[in-house]
Amino acid sequence: MPNNLKDEKSPYLKQHAENPVDWYPWGEEAFQKAKKENKPVFLSIGYATCHWCHVMAHESFEDPDIAELMNDAFINVKVDREERPDIDSTYMTVCQMLTGQGGWPLTIIMTPDKEPFFAGTYIPKEARYDRIGLRQLIPGVKGMWKNEPKRVEKATTKIREGFTRSQEFESGKFPGTEATDFAAEQLAQRYDAEHGGFGSAPKFPSPHNLMFMLRQWKLTGEERFLNMVTDTLEKMRLGGIWDHIGFGFHRYSTDQEWLLPHFEKMLYDQALLMMAYTEGWQATQNPLLKQTVYEIAEYVERDLVHPEGGFYSAEDADSEGEEGKFYVWKKEEIESVLSDDASNFIDLFNISGEGNFEDEASKQRTGKNIPHLNSELSEEQSTWFNEVRSSLFEEREERERPLLDDKILTDWNGLMIAAFAKAGFTFGEERFTYLAENAFQFIEENLQENNNLLHRYNDGDSGIDAMADDYAFLVWGLIELYEATGKPEYLKKALKQNERFIELFWDEDKGGFYFSIADEDQVYGRQKQIFDGAMPSSNSVAITNLIRLSRLTGNSAFEDYADKIGRAFSADLIRSGASICHSMQAIQFLHAEAKEITLRGEFSEIEEVMDLLRSRFSPFRVLHFVTDEHQKSLTEIADYVGTQNRIDNKPTLFICRNFACDQPITDLEKMKKALG
Fold first, then answer.
1. Same domain, 391 and 412
2. Taking a C-beta distance cutoff of 8 angstroms, is the pair 188, 229 a contact?
3. Where a domain ends, among 553, 584, 615?
4. I need a surface site. Which of 363, 461, 503, 671 has the fewest CB within 10 A?
5. Which pLDDT does position 360 carry in this prediction?
6. Is 191 a member of any domain?
């Protein structure tokens, strides 16, 4: 019998619409019902492509006996954490406080007033090892709710107090290079010299950490930082975390070697990794890194683009009820598809009869293989592989595909816009820039309402008030689009979105941006986020945006806001830099000899100079490329550009640094030298 989720737009909620559990979406109806019936609320938070969410659903939420227990004891609420990251953030903080860890599915039991008193992640149906099962937990909670209300009250009070403390940030001076040096050394100590990456299993790509370390190399000249980044980028690209047949990165590696991934593919990973590989190529000119950017782009354009331009969210790890089934191969399948080419592929990509793909629970070999490389292919091998790969790809396309999570999120689209714009500029690739521009147009047409952004679009429906990530990431994308195209409209729109961001989210008392708008869903009030996770935090991105906007426009007020963010989170930035690497990039920018570059002329006149700008890793600069057509429009928002006119009607380069400007340059060779 269908529950209350059948009309929801979230693919995740739709997955549960036929459960025997009487699920409600988050909203007043559920909480009013809980008050009326005097029942606690069982809140389950997950997302459509989450493997362990599927496991818990099949094991428990589809089981009529467990559903009967849940329906009797609770009012049951389902939340898509990607639709409502504000709700997820609050209760994930609670889970980490109570258990020392977090993850999805996130399981919360709380009062009808939304105050939690139990938190966990995946809970099996039956108790096993040291983990309680739902069959035991539900009667226990039901009894406590009925017979021990003081115990519930004591738990909610303690959690509320702990949560309040978690939002007490120690302010101080704006951090200096001691913070970035400390963060770099923290990461260096965790560096895996054998396999690349930082730490042990499970191992996450964390591209914003790699981008920070590239900047640390640029700032200090220490080659070890560059080597850590390039080695990691190469090892990930060779490993099983990379889809060698269809391209794109899987979520993370469950082992230390980048071999066995969790197979879901997330849009934000493709975006951030595209940026990291683009910058890695600028720093090294390594063809493999450029190839990876182009292949990520091929995957995203092929599988994650809405017909009207927005980017879909993710692809599932599971198909036909098994994680990774779409992606793994038996040796006999390879031999059948490739015939005479099979033995070469089997040797190069580490295919064996017993397989290298282990079942995560039993750790038993399955006879299936994740293709991966031990070393980079030679040019001759690459030519051969491109031919055989298409055969394997076509064969794989006949399999049942994993679920496509086709909702479109403003924040994740902002990251993908930034990535395509950055790559489009770097490689002079108009197709990439077009994809970025088209996606932004989709957001303008579908996710903007009365001067405010919305967070989610799906199936013709737009909704949910935008959160800090939506504004911060979209502004980032617009800044990259401006520098990639030179079109003043993108800088104007970045400024407009940033202005609205400040109006809605800025904390006038203590500085920093709140994560959500003020509403009744924030049971403990509005949170602020500074620590980076799989994506950089909203305040981390905002501080970088503000500095870039200040330098692009000459408006120092933006830098004042950036300064207040740095002061508001001072202690965390200084003590925990490796957990806040995107903010560290802003600090690096401020302490480098950052340049404001204006190039006046037409592209046909300065193509060589533009190629130099594209190909060099120059993270500590902002760029105006000003044509005669755009100068007047740009002067309206960056008045200093109005004084930077062509000299003798020649293409002219202006470079400013440390609040002073060099002599304008009109000679092409001198331009190259000044930028080199």
1. no
2. no
3. 584
4. 363
5. 63
6. no
Distance CA 95, CA 118 (A): 8
Q: Do residues 196 and 236 make contact, with C-beta atoms less than 8 angstroms apart?
A: yes
Instruction: Specify the 3-state DSSP secondary structure of 270.
Output: helix
Of how many residues is the chain composed?
676
668 domain residue, yes or no: yes
Q: Which domain holds residue 137?
A: 11-166
Look at residues 591, 544, 539 and name the one whose alpha carbon lies nearest to residue 568: 539
> pLDDT for 37-75, tens place per residue?
999 999 999 999 988 899 999 999 999 999 999 999 999
Show the tokens assigned to 577.
């830099």
Joined together, the tokens standing for residue 397 give: 């396309």
Residues near 9 by beta carbon (within 8 Å), at least 6 away in sequence: 407, 456, 458, 459, 461, 463
Q: How far is CA 538 from the centre of its chain?
A: 11
Tell me, what amino acid is at 617? Answer: F
Q: Note the pTM of the prediction, 2 decimals.
A: 0.95
What contacts 429, CB < 8 A, 6 or more positions away?
A: 423
Answer with the one of 166, 187, 220 that is the final residue of a domain.
166
Q: In the numeric block, which tokens belong to residue 401?
A: 């595909």
Helix axes 207-220, 267-284, angle to 10 degrees: 20
SS3 label, residue 455: strand
* Domain shared by 391 and 515, yes or no: no
**How many domains does the chain fold into?**
4
Q: Is pLDDT of 1 > 60?
A: no
Return the CATH number at 640: 3.40.30
- Chain-centroid distance of CA 290 in Å reads 21
pLDDT in tens, 423-440: 999 999 999 999 999 999
Q: Are residues 427 and 442 in the same domain?
A: yes
Q: How confident is the model at residue 358 (pLDDT cuts 50, 70, 90)?
A: confident
Give me the helices (H) in 367-450, please: 379-397, 410-427, 430-446
User: What are the angstrom distances between the C-alpha of 469 and each of 48, 408, 652?
Assistant: 20, 14, 38
**β-bridge partners, 405:** 314
Rounded alpha-carbon distances, angstroms, from residue 533 to 89, 312, 314, 530: 11, 21, 17, 10
Are residue 579 and residue 432 in the same domain, yes or no?
Answer: yes
